[in-house]
Specification:
The protein is mainly alpha-helical and 79 residues long. The chain has one domain. It is 62% helix and 0% strand. It has 5 helices and no strands.
């Protein structure tokens, strides 16, 4: 359950100027959450319990290795 919440939180974050406002709206469709859950577990396991932006940074650092579905989710959310 924590993994699902974490992925949902990641999907709602934006590192652009609106990041603070968007942090309060932690959402993501179940499909989006599912699309990145495996990638978070595989590439970012060591930081899964850290702050959301740290996990997002980890996903971005591993961008070339992400599944197409998770990459598209990040793209769709301006990442």
């Amino acid at each position: 359950m924590r993994k699902t919440f974490l992925v949902a939180a990641l999907l709602s974050l934006s590192v652009s100027g609106g990041a603070i406002a968007q942090q309060q709206q932690r959402s993501g469709t179940p499909e989006e959450q599912k699309a990145c859950a495996h990638d978070v577990q595989k590439f970012c396991r060591a930081v899964m319990d850290d702050a959301d932006l740290i996990v997002l940074n980890c996903l971005q650092q591993n961008r070339a290795k992400l599944t197409k579905a998770c990459d598209q989710v990040l793209t769709n959310h301006g990442q």
